[in-house]
Design goal:
Elements (H helix, E strand, L loop, with lengths): L21 H4 L3 H23 L11 H7 L3 H20 L1 H5 L6 H7 L7 E2 L10 H11 L9 H4 L14 H12 L3 E5 L13 H10 L4 E5 L7 H13 L5 E4 L19 H10 L2 E5 L15 H10 L5 E4 L6 H10 L3 E4 L10 H4 L20 H9 L5 H16 L2
Helix pairs in contact: 2-4, 6-16, 9-16, 11-12
Length: 408
């Protein structure tokens, strides 16, 4: 396969004859894609000229054709094949990236040149406190009146999805994690109006973290339906004593004390102060389903900006990446270096191309997640490995940025 020269940290290298010309590799991906289209058109023209020789008054070849003439016929064909695939990705967007059936992601990880470690920051185990999410995967998403053409979501759910709370469910979940090539998973706590099928407590997560030491980490639940003093006390205990590396914050799901609200509510200032004092990350729910009412206010990034101006040391991770306010979320991350974007399943949902094309621009602020059970663990990772980003960005996205937040 014809490739551009890779960085010095790449483990696998191609033979010299398999390298694209240096001048070509210096172009950005967009320019290479355009050149691919031009090259294919010129190649077609060259084939026509073999059968229809040019007349004396035919104009001279233009600049692009002269560049082609300096490349050997063999290398031209191979360059065209390589860049045609890049052009297909550029023109087809999401469809081009997610095409293909699901498979073992472990082999794909190795194929990028050495084993790339992976932390899945959004992966819930098949336990009863998460059963509401698993039911949504099997009911709401599976029975949509219109298709969501993403194989990680519309594809056949793995066996663990139908085993929630049953014997062997956790073992099956770990088998799927191992088969995908994922090293570490993170699961968030949640208090959803006390619903036992949607509420995961911090103590249970701490127990799992001890049971699967080094491979499982939990984010503390934050109960917003009780007095704030009690909430802060529980939060501090979860991080200082139970050992959880952060917390999950969902103001749109508050059912008492004023009901659903947004992150800029002054009621929450004690939470922010506690997270700063403990130097722990606060994951905040965003996305199309971020509140009990309209998703608009929950994804208003100006409200996040107001909080960050008041609390500049607060480390915030946007669960679902601020979707559908992707551009504003990117601007927020640009302004505040300790804002992190976790697009998870929305990376491959409608509009997710915005996240994809900005990974290389903010390589230290994107965090990978599958949002399992909403996205299959292996398929989501396989899709991610096909993204047209450089290897150092992929490494940061899949592992390094999350490891920093977990203080590994």
């Amino acid at each position: 396969m014809l490739t551009c020269p890779t960085s010095s940290d790449d483990v696998q290298r191609e033979e010299p004859n398999d390298q694209a010309p240096a001048w070509l590799c210096q172009l950005d991906e967009g320019s290479r894609a355009v050149f691919a289209i031009t090259t294919m058109e010129k190649e077609s023209k060259m084939r026509e000229d073999v059968h229809n020789p040019a007349q004396p008054n035919q104009p001279e070849m233009d600049k692009a054709a002269r560049v082609e003439s300096s490349i050997s016929r063999r290398q031209l064909l191979r360059t065209t094949a390589l860049l045609a695939s890049a052009a297909a990705v550029a023109s087809a967007g999401l469809a081009g990236i997610i095409a293909g059936s699901a498979g073992r992601a472990e082999a794909a990880v190795a194929a990028r040149g050495g084993k790339i470690k992976v932390i899945d920051f959004r992966c819930r185990p098949p336990l009863k406190p998460y059963s509401g999410l698993y039911n949504l995967r099997q009911s709401t998403l599976a029975k949509r009146p219109n298709r969501l053409n993403n194989p990680a979501t519309e594809g056949t759910p793995p066996h663990a999805v139908s085993m929630v709370g049953q014997p062997g469910a956790m073992e099956e979940w770990w088998k799927e994690i191992d088969a995908a090539g994922v090293d570490i998973v993170v699961s968030n706590g949640r208090y959803a109006a006390g619903d036992p099928t949607f509420s995961m407590d911090s103590k249970t997560l701490s127990g799992l973290q001890k049971q699967y030491k080094g491979r499982f980490y939990g984010l503390a639940a934050i109960n917003l339906d009780q007095p704030m003093d009690a909430t802060v006390s529980e939060l501090e205990d979860a991080i200082k004593n139970l050992g959880l590396p952060g917390a999950n914050f969902e103001p749109g799901y508050r059912s008492k004390n004023g009901g659903p609200t947004t992150i800029d509510n002054a009621d929450f200032y004690p939470i922010f102060e506690t997270m700063i004092r403990l130097d722990a990350v606060l994951m905040v729910q965003t996305g199309a389903f971020a509140g009990l009412e309209s998703f608009g206010p929950a994804n208003d990034m100006s409200k996040f900006d107001e909080v960050k101006v008041k609390f500049p040391k607060l480390k915030v991770l946007l669960a679902h990446g601020g979707y559908p306010s992707m551009d504003a979320a990117l601007a927020l991350a640009l302004k505040h270096p300790n804002i992190y974007i976790c697009p998870d399943v929305y990376m491959f949902w409608p509009g997710g191309q915005t996240f994809q094309i900005n990974l290389d621009l903010l390589p230290d602020q994107f965090v990978y997640g599958s949002a399992f059970p909403f996205g299959n663990i292996d398929t989501t990772l396989k899709q991610t490995l096909k993204l047209p980003v450089n290897k150092s960005t992929l490494k940061s996205y899949l592992y390094d940025n999350a490891a920093q937040l977990l203080k590994l």
